[in-house]
Design the sequence.
């Protein structure tokens, strides 16, 4: 009997195998439950969130449907029309939320970069806070005249300074906004703060580079012409023909190429000098003044002759071109009244920045200069570090270009490439998503534009923020 039991067990599955099979089936069952729960999670609310986020990121409705078809069973995939209704509803909700958030940001946004872009010949008036990259204005039309810009600017009573290109509509808009502030101010009260305007260095430098590129292309074209003339001379020599005529043409072509090359080199040097004059510091590492910068610009623009340089020289002669120097100088004077200490702290900031970028033996050189500068600051004021923090903050936040708004423009252009029509609601949805999403790289990594601006939100999730009642959101922001 013992032998029969043993033989029966030998032909069957062992207890160890049964236990392993049980564990495998248990794990498979858990995986199936997990997959089912994830499918359950992707119900209509999640599909709405995916559709709204995808649209805010620039995806078309068709692309969103394709993505939903990847993660959903075919019978559950919504139609394109359904997705469109979801996105439209989110766009309508975002308008009320943004009105509350814009009011909360009024005391935080003091400087703006302004520009306009065109979607199917209709302008969109754009405004971005440069330090946080918060997108605070995205108004569709009706035009780019001063009255339209004034409507955008008037909504921000604490705005102090704007940086923009030399557009007449923008300039007039700032003027009208300042006039409205003065009219709204009571006669007995103090004069309201005037919005100052700086001419964007970004557009000025781009115009200089555009003309300079044309100059070098002309040089290349003339050198090719001269080289072809040389080839014609060589061909005539091989054929035994008289080369006096073609040789003279080749000589003239090379003399013209040399003249154009010299002019291009001179223009290149002038453009580099202009770029240096538009920067914050001079060659010695001290903060530039308007008088120094203007003198450097006048000297650098003298070699730039001809009609093609007319626009660039007009931009450089505009008083607003150096307004960033005036604004920073005024802020530093208020922060550190003592002139010697102020100059020493600014120079120390310059040296520390150069030290961070130095490598090898240069680090030793800059380290010595930093140590000497710190000793000087200590002798001028024992409590110099407190003033140094103020200077550091002002220099880090100094703005002279509207590059920030160009980044927001590129996002809208990406959306334009996939949509025939970009409504005001869609712009609001994109603006809310942009301001709530965390930056993925760079010095702002891990923080959203609203967070960088200093706005304390009840939640960092943009979708949860969108679902809130505007009145409830405003109450939470106040408390």
Sequence:
């Amino acid at each position: 009997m013992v032998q029969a039991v043993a033989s029966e067990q030998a032909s069957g599955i062992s207890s160890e195998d049964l236990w392993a099979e049980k564990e495998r089936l248990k794990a498979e069952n858990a995986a199936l439950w997990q997959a089912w729960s994830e499918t359950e999670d992707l119900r209509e609310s999640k599909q709405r969130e995916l559709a709204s986020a995808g649209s805010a990121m620039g995806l078309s409705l068709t692309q969103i449907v394709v993505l939903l078809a990847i993660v959903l069973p075919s019978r559950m995939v919504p139609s394109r029309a359904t997705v469109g209704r979801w996105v439209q509803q989110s766009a309508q909700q975002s308008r009320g939320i943004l009105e509350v958030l814009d009011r909360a940001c009024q005391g935080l946004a003091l400087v703006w970069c302004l520009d306009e872009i065109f979607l199917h010949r209709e302008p969109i008036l754009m405004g971005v806070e440069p330090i946080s990259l918060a997108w605070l204005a995205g108004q569709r039309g009706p035009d780019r005249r001063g009255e339209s810009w004034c409507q955008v600017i008037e909504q921000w009573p604490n705005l102090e300074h704007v940086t923009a290109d030399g557009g007449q509509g923008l300039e007039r808009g700032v003027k009208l906004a300042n006039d409205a502030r003065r009219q709204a101010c009571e006669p007995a009260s103090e004069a309201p703060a005037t919005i100052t305007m700086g001419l964007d260095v970004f557009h000025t430098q781009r115009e200089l580079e555009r003309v300079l590129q044309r100059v070098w292309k002309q040089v290349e074209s003339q050198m090719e012409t001269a080289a072809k003339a040389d080839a014609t001379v060589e061909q005539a020599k091989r054929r035994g023909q008289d080369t006096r005529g073609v040789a003279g043409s080749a000589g003239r072509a090379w003399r013209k190429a040399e003249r154009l090359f010299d002019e291009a080199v001179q223009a290149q040097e002038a453009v580099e000098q202009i770029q240096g004059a538009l920067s914050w510091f001079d060659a010695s590492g001290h903060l530039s003044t308007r008088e120094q910068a203007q003198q450097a610009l006048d000297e650098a623009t003298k070699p730039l002759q001809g009609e093609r340089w007319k626009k660039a020289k007009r931009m450089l002669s505009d008083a607003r071109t150096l307004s960033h120097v005036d604004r920073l100088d005024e802020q530093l004077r208020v922060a550190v009244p003592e002139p010697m200490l102020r100059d020493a702290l600014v120079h120390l900031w310059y040296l520390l920045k150069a030290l961070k970028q130095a490598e090898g033996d240069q680090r030793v050189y800059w380290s010595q200069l930093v140590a000497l500068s710190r000793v000087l600051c200590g002798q001028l004021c024992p409590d110099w570090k407190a003033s140094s923090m103020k200077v550091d903050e002002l220099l880090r936040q100094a703005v002279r270009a509207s590059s920030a708004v160009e980044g927001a423009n590129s996002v809208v252009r990406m959306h334009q490439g996939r949509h025939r029509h970009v409504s005001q609601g869609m712009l609001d949805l994109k603006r809310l998503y942009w301001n709530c999403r965390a930056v993925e790289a760079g010095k702002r990594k891990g923080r959203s534009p609203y967070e960088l601006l200093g706005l304390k939100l009840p939640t960092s999730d943009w979708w949860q923020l969108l679902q809130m009642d505007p009145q409830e959101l405003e109450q939470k922001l106040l408390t």
